[in-house]
Amino acid sequence: MSNYISKFFIFSTFIFFLSNANGQEVKNKNITLNQENLAILEKTRTDATFDLLNNNEEEKAYAEAKRLIKLLKTKESNVRLNIILSYYFNKKTQLDSMSFYANKALKNTEAIANDSLRRILASSSYNLLALSNNKRGLFEASKKYHLKGIEIVEKQKKGYPYYVNLHGLANIYMKLGDFTNAIKYFKQCLDYKEDSEITIGSHVNLGAIYGFKKEYESSNYYLKKINSLCKEQNNFQCQSLSALNMGENYEDIGKHKEALEYYEESLEIAKKSELYGIESITNQNIGRILYLQKRYEESKLYFLNALHIALAYNLLNQQKEIYLKLKEIAVYQNDYQSAYALMTRYSEVKDSIAKMQNDQDINELDIKFKTLQKENEIKDLTFKNNNKVLLLKNQEKTIENLNLQKAIEKKQNENELLKLKEITQKKVTQINLLKKDKQIKESEILREKQVRNIVIIGFLVLLIPIIALSFVYYQKQKAQILINKKQKEISEQKNKAILKDQELKLVKAEIEGQDKERIRIAQELHDSVGGNLAAIKLQLTNSSYGKENEIKRINSQINETYNQIRSISHNLLPKRFNLNNFCEFVEEYQNKVAKSSNIKAYLSAHPREKINNIDEKILSETYHIIQELITNTIKHAHATNIELQLNLIENLFSVIFEDNGKGFTIENNKDGIGLTNIKNRINNLNGSLHIDSTPNRGAIFNIEIPIL
């Protein structure tokens, strides 16, 4: 079983104790009202700092304590704040700073008038000094401070100051191997029910001692009992330490696997909670088991981790044990040079511990010697002061003679002063004359400045309107240039629109003219030539004379000629949709208009064959709608691209027309004749129209027509 187990729970309870001590102070004080009020006022501020420590806000508590120690006036407050700072450095394992502030607090308790409060605060300071030495491995020094802490409050009612030092003393006996006294005092601590942390610490350490004594059933009883309590209270130090002790119990009985599990649990909690002392001990215990299992490299790593912590926080006793173990590992690895160096460091640390123990005793004797010296110096000063009183009496007569001499000198000085006054008066007169000359010159300079300023202001008064007029004229000219430019652009756009409109009309007129001419020729052929041939055919058919074969041949030629003329007349009719070519006809029209208007046109139709077979009335109306859309785009949108999509999905004929023109706002757009005609044609077909357009982003016309 390792001998590194120690109590880590004193300080959080210690803070609550000091807060209660503040209350005792108010009850027992017998001083002036103002001093009492000041102490009460300062108490509220130190209490708030204690609360920060209790809530694990150490950095805020440290900053507030450093600030208040400069502001608060009473000795009681000064002692409390130094104790807070000592506790802060205990948490950080900075033992030199911890001892410095604890000694400072102990020294300042001597000036506290209230005897009860003085004893309580002094006992707390002794406890901090004992803990600092405990962590350094200076157990005899720690024992001495705990005994002083118990002694100073022993005659009072036994409360927290008594039991916290008694607990620390039991801890030291445990480390020194005096288990009988350790068990005795820890069990006495269990009688104190007002602080859970003392109860927790006593259970943990009793478990450790019974483990040392190989009474594992008793040990695990105390450890398991306190472990469950610590988990309920989220006390990570307690959880880590109880797991550590149970691991040591299992190690002692040779169950290394179970021991390592508890050690790993303890190490994980210690790392998360920054419990460096426990972390160092657990690393050593794991290293010890790995060493027994001859896993020397792994063991060495854990001991090095423990050494890093022990060096960082000046844990001398742990450094000594770690160096010894690392030396043994080096010997097994045949690294005798490292073993020698480690043994040297072991000896140095061991000597350092002994020297520090002796230095503390020497320092105490030195303090007593210096105190005696100061008392002797005070006696010497008193004697010298009495001699000085006699000398002063003898010097009084000498002073009277000196006063007479001073009176004579005073008269002489008065005469000299009169002479000096006359000289001064003359100089004052001269100075006044010089001042008048200076004032006259300053008035002339001021007048010149005023004239200069008037000239400058007059010039500015004239200059500012001129600049303003110039600026207004420039702005008007600039605006006129912009207006002329805009008018020119508008007129150019109008001319372009007129030209496009004329071109569109010419294209339409050309197409309409061709259609009319074709219709006229077809009618002529059909009505005149076709009619005549039909009549001849009829007569020949009904004729009963001549040669029948000849008549049949002529009849056949006439019939062939009639069919040819009929075919020609049908071909001359306008190419609408009578030959299932609607898509091709629309594409031809679109390309012709696009070519004349210098725009790019695209057409996609799917499926073409089914679209071409749609009812002629629907296709005719659709064709007129497409014509109107293309016309509007050319006239109004000024587009460079148009795209037409024709889709037939089940019984729905979809026409999507898109351009990249200037677009328009749908809400503010008034329907013209063209758009009105489009909507009317769509309504006649029971269709729907959706328009999507925004300025400068073109327009999309989505038309859907049901096919019954």
Automatic annotation (TrEMBL):
Keywords, alphabetical: ATP-binding, Coiled coil, Kinase, Membrane, Nucleotide-binding, Phosphoprotein, TPR repeat, Transferase, Transmembrane, Transmembrane helix, Two-component regulatory system
Gene3D superfamilies associated with the record: 1.20.5.1930, Histidine kinase-like ATPase, C-terminal domain, Tetratricopeptide repeat domain
UniProt cross-references to PROSITE patterns, sorted A to Z: HIS_KIN, TPR
CDD domains found in the cross-reference section: HATPase_UhpB-NarQ-NarX-like
Domain Histidine kinase: 520-708
TPR repeat residue numbers: 163-196, 240-273
Reaction(s) the record says it catalyses: ATP + protein L-histidine = ADP + protein N-phospho-L-histidine
TM segment ranges: 454-474
E.C. no: 2.7.13.3
Positions in coiled-coil regions: 392-421
Protein name per the record: histidine kinase
